[in-house]
Amino acid sequence: MATTTSKTTTATGTRRSASARKSTATRKTTSTARKTAPTASPTTSTQSKTTVGQVTYLAERAVLVPVGASLLVRDDLVSTVRGIVTKYRTRASIERELKRYERRGASARNRFERQVRRQRTKFERELRQRRTRVERTVKQNRRRLEREVRQVRRDFEKQSGVVSSRVEKLVSEAQGLIS
């Protein structure tokens, strides 16, 4: 809240700021409001000011609340029973309702069975896809391993041929030196 610094002269001749005037005006209206307003009591019109009156009020309330709740429940029960009685007044109406319930149950069962079949089909499809993927990977790995083993065998045979020729050469040189 912004306060102004303008000064005014009052009836007594003293100067006061605008903010001081505001607070004085507020105080005067507040005190006037207090004088004209009736005294507010903390109790409501249903409560008495005395302790005995308050206890009486609480006792009445403790009795009336459950009574009112039970009356509401009774009204709901009566209206429900009346609705059932009017709905199932004749044998034909009972049979009609039973057929309606049967149809609803059958449609719910069919919906559930379709959902189960759909889930089963989805599961089987995913299982086949995974199995195919694993078989393909195993086959690729087997081919790769066999290829590498053949290569290592060829390299080993080449190296063993080179080593055996060197050994024969060394043996023949050794024999030539000995003889």
Overview of this structure, please?
- The protein is mainly alpha-helical and 179 residues long.
- Among the domains are: 51-87; 91-170.
- It contains 3 helices and 2 strands.
- The model is unreliable at 31-42 (pLDDT under 50).
Brief rundown of the structure:
The chain has helices at residues 18-36, 51-87, 91-178; strands at residues 7-9, 15-17.
Strand content: under 5%
How far apart are the first and last residues' alpha carbons, in Å? 125 Å
Instruction: Kindly report the average pLDDT value.
Output: 81
Structural class computed from helices and strand pairing? mainly alpha
Give start-end ranges of low-pLDDT stretches. Answer: 31-42
Q: What is the number of helices?
A: 3
* Strands ordered across the widest β-sheet: 1-2
State Rg: 52 Å
Helix content: over 70%
Shape verdict:
elongated
List the helices and strands and how they pair.
Blueprint: E1 7-9, E2 15-17, H1 18-36, H2 51-87, H3 91-178
Antiparallel strand pairs: 1-2
Q: Descriptors for this entry?
A:
80% helix; single chain; mainly alpha; two-stranded antiparallel sheet; elongated; 3 helices; 179 residues
